[in-house]
Design a protein that fits this description.
The chain is an alpha/beta fold. It contains 13 helices and 17 strands. The strands form 3 sheets. An 8-stranded mixed beta sheet has the order 3-2-1-4-5-6-16-17, sandwiched between helices. A 7-stranded mixed beta sheet has the order 11-10-9-12-13-15-14. Helix 1 packs parallel to helix 11, helix 6 packs parallel to helix 7 and helix 6 packs antiparallel against helix 11. The structure holds nicotinamide-adenine-dinucleotide. Nicotinamide-adenine-dinucleotide (NAD) binds next to helix 6 and helix 7.
Length: 389
C-alpha cells in the first residue's frame, strides 16, 4: 500500500502528519511512503531527511494518487482549503487526519460522497491501549504550555516572586479554567514560571490532579455530580448551572492577573465562564488567553485569533497554538498517526474490521456512506440499520 504525507495548506499550519523518524518503521513494515515535497519544512524536516528515512518525495498530484493520505487537517479542520482537497479524492482512497467530525459533519459527508474511507483522529477512544494514538492529548498538552507563555509575554508584569535589593515583586496570580489535558499542562507551566496558580474544573475528579501539580483547586458550592459524561469528558449543563458558576467564579477571576480558559465540551459550543462584567472587574493589564475561542469562547468578547482589549484587560483568542511549536507537535502527532496506521493495517486496512473499538470509533465514512452514528446524527441522517454502527 502506498501512503502519502500531504503538505498542509491551511493558513498558518506548520505541522506535518509524519516526521522522518516515524517514516522508517512504516517502510520497514512493508508500506511504501511518499511525502509531498516541502511538507515537513516548516516543522524542521526537509525533503532530504524524509529521503534518508526511506520515503519518496513527490508532487502534490502524485501524493494524491496514493492509496492512503495522511494529513494534519482534513474536512472541516482544513476550513477553506478542504474543497480543493475533497475534489481530488477518489473512491476507496483512505484519508486519515483531524477532521473536526462533530462540528463539521457536512464536510465529512462530502468525503463520503467522493467514496473515500475517512478516519477522524479526534475520535480515537480515550482508552489505555489507544493512548499513543491520542492526537487530542498530544496537541492539547503543548497548546496548554504555549498558552501560558503567550500570557506571560503579554502580561505587563513578571510571573515569579522576586526579592531584590530594589524591592520585592509578588508573584502573578494565574487561574486556569478547565483542567483537562491543556489545562493541566497550563497549570504545570505557570507553576514552573513561578506564578501562584489556581484552577477550576466542573469535574470534581480533577481536584487531586490539580493539587498534585501544586496548584489550588477552586471549589464552588455548586452541585457537579452530573457533570462528567462517559469517557471522562464534561457534559453540557443547563444555562442555570452556568449562570451560577459565573456568579461564583466572579471573585476569583477578578483577583487573577492571568486567566487561561480551556473549558470544552466535545462537539458543542464552549461554555461561557467569564462575562464582560467579570472582565471589567479585573485589574487593568490583566490577560485572558481564551483557548476555547474557536468554539465560541469561554470568555465573552474573545475573538478567534484576535487581540481584544476590554477595560484595560487584554483578551487573546489563539486557535492554533500547536502550530506554533511545529517541531514537537509534529513529532508527537506523527507518533500518533504512525501507531494508528499500523493498527489499521493490522485490522485489515482498507477493509478494517469494526469489531475493533479503535477502528469502530474512528471510521467516519466508507463505501459512499457516512457510517459514524454521531456524525450521521450531526449531518441530519437517520441511523444506519444493521451495520453494527
Ligand atoms: P476537553 O478538552 O474536552 O475539556 C477541557 C476541560 O474543560 C475538561 O477537563 C472539562 O471537564 C472542562 N470543562 C468543561 N466544561 C466546564 C465548565 N463549565 N467549567 C469548568 N471546566 C469545564 O477535555 P480533555 O482535555 O480532552 O480531557 C477530557 C478527559 O479525558 C479528561 O478526563 C482526561 O483526563 C481524559 N483523558 C483520558 C485519556 C486516556 O485515558 N487515554 C487521555 C486523555 C484524556
Amino acid at each position: 500500500m502506498k501512503v502519502a504525507v500531504l503538505k498542509e495548506t491551511f493558513p498558518g499550519e506548520r505541522r506535518v502528519a509524519l516526521v522522518p523518524a516515524a517514516v522508517a518503521p512504516l517502510v520497514k513494515s512493508g508500506l511504501e511512503v511518499v511525502v509531498e515535497s516541502g511538507a515537513g519544512l516548516a516543522a524542521g524536516s526537509p525533503d532530504e531527511a524524509y529521503r534518508a528515512a526511506g520515503a519518496g518525495i513527490v508532487s502534490r498530484d502524485e501524493a494524491f494518487a496514493a492509496d492512503c493520505l495522511l494529513a494534519v487537517r482534513a474536512c472541516g479542520a482544513a476550513g477553506g482549503c478542504w474543497p480543493a482537497d475533497r475534489d481530488r479524492l477518489r473512491p476507496g482512497q483512505v484519508l486519515i487526519g483531524m477532521c473536526d467530525p462533530l462540528s463539521s459533519a457536512d464536510a465529512c459527508r462530502e468525503a463520503a460522497d467522493r467514496g473515500a474511507t475517512l478516519f477522524a483522529l479526534e475520535l480515537v477512544p480515550r482508552i489505555t491501549r489507544a493512548q499513543s494514538m491520542d492526537v487530542l492529548s498530544s496537541q492539547a498538552n503543548i497548546a496548554g504550555y504555549r498558552a501560558v507563555l503567550l500570557a506571560a509575554n503579554t502580561l505587563p508584569r513578571i510571573l515569579p516572586m522576586m526579592t531584590t535589593a530594589a524591592g520585592t515583586v509578588t508573584p502573578a496570580k494565574v487561574l486556569v479554567l478547565g483542567a483537562g489535558v491543556a489545562g493541566l499542562q497550563a497549570i504545570a507551566t505557570a507553576k514552573r514560571l513561578g506564578a501562584q496558580v489556581s484552577a477550576y474544573d466542573v469535574r470534581p475528579a480533577v481536584k487531586e490532579q490539580v493539587q498534585s501539580l501544586g496548584a489550588r483547586f477552586v471549589e464552588l458550592p455548586i452541585e457537579t455530580g452530573a457533570a462528567e459524561a462517559a469517557g471522562g469528558y464534561a457534559k453540557a449543563m443547563g444555562e442555570e448551572f452556568y449562570a451560577r458558576q459565573r456568579e461564583l467564579l466572579g471573585k476569583v477571576v477578578a483577583d487573577s492577573d492571568v486567566v487561561v480558559c480551556t473549558a470544552l465540551i466535545p462537539g458543542q459550543r464552549a461554555p461561557v465562564l467569564v462575562t464582560r462584567e467579570m472582565v471589567s472587574r479585573m485589574k487593568p493589564g490583566s490577560v485572558i488567553v481564551d483557548m476555547a475561542a474557536e468554539r465560541g469562547g469561554n470568555c465573552e468578547g474573545s475573538q478567534p485569533d484576535e487581540t481584544v482589549v476590554i477595560d484595560g484587560v487584554t483578551i487573546l483568542g489563539p486557535t492554533n497554538l500547536p502550530a506554533e511549536a511545529p517541531i514537537h507537535t509534529s513529532q508527537l502527532y506523527a507518533k500518533n498517526v504512525a501507531t494508528f496506521l499500523a493498527h489499521l493495517v493490522k485490522c485489515g486496512l482498507p477493509d478494517v474490521s469494526l469489531d475493533d473499538e479503535i477502528c469502530h470509533d474512528t471510521l467516519v465514512a466508507r463505501g459512499g456512506e457516512l457510517v459514524h452514528p454521531k456524525v450521521r446524527e450531526r449531518a441530519g441522517l437517520p441511523p444506519q440499520p444493521g451495520t453494527g454502527q
